[in-house]
Amino acid sequence: MNDSRDNHDEPSVGQPPVDPGDDTERPSSSPEPATGRGSGPPEPPDSGPIRNWTGLTVALSLVAFATAATIAVADGALTAAAGAAILGASLSAIAVVGRSKPVVFELLDDAWAEHRLYAWFSTGLFALGAVIGALLYAAGIDLTELFMEMIMEEFGEDELSGEGTLELSATFFIVNNTPPFLAAIAGALTLGFVTLLIMVFNGVLVGNIVAVTGTETGLGVIIALLVPHGIFELPALFIAAGVGFRFVHRVGQRIAGSRDTLFTKRYLVRTTALVGFAWLILVLAAFVEAYITFLIADALFAV
């Protein structure tokens, strides 16, 4: 894997590269993936990366606004609708700022380029876990009860409604999904073991539960119950895990001597921006899961 993201300036012949984002960093012998920007001016607003990030951010904001409108009309939960609308406005603001100041999207683009392979590696771990979960079901092991017990133990009786069921609000899913999101990043402190465990374990749970419920309700119902929010939630989690694995790699490079500095200002800024963007996607997934997923499933399959 070509690994080098902190040195964007093209070095002169005979001179070592220096991270333009950190004036105090000494010359680094660590190769970093080239961005192609060099030391020239920022990319124009109509450049490919800027267009791509603008399109993605605008699309996410439209989903958030549509979710807010659906919540207000179908559920009447005005507080939740306002929350989704605020999220949409925040994403719209990012799109506007990113177009007017391309450096914002350049940071995100650099961060994604640096962490992309690690995010795909995390996706592979999750997929492996899902296969294991399905095989466990084939062997007669049902993990759905374990999953529900974990939820009940985590939230306790205070989160139960009068009918003894959990109130599935956006807040519930944000509170439930943020800890593993952060743990996937912090797992780097365990040399990636916790991050790996989170990816595989979540994959096992999803694979097993899909296999169990799929045989009872059919594949179509499972798709309707997972895809609407899963297309947002899973990429956010994979990005978080990718950040964790990338940090482990940087530590390994530093120990091996191929990297002169573990942190640079630009690395910290761009990685923080990517993590924040991924968390906003996770929040969007929470609103969709709480208020949209079941509407879609009910409309298609009367669940």
Automatic annotation (TrEMBL):
Pfam families: SpoIIM. Keywords: Membrane, Transmembrane, Transmembrane helix. The chain crosses the membrane at residues 53-73, 80-98, 118-140, 181-201, 221-248, 268-297. Residues 1-11 have a biased composition (Basic and acidic residues). InterPro entries: SpoIIM-like (IPR002798). Signal peptide: none annotated. Residues 1-51 are annotated as: Disordered. The keyword Transmembrane helix applies. The keyword Transmembrane helix applies. It comes from the Archaea. PANTHER family: SLR1478 PROTEIN. This is Stage II sporulation protein M. It comes from Natronorubrum sulfidifaciens JCM 14089.
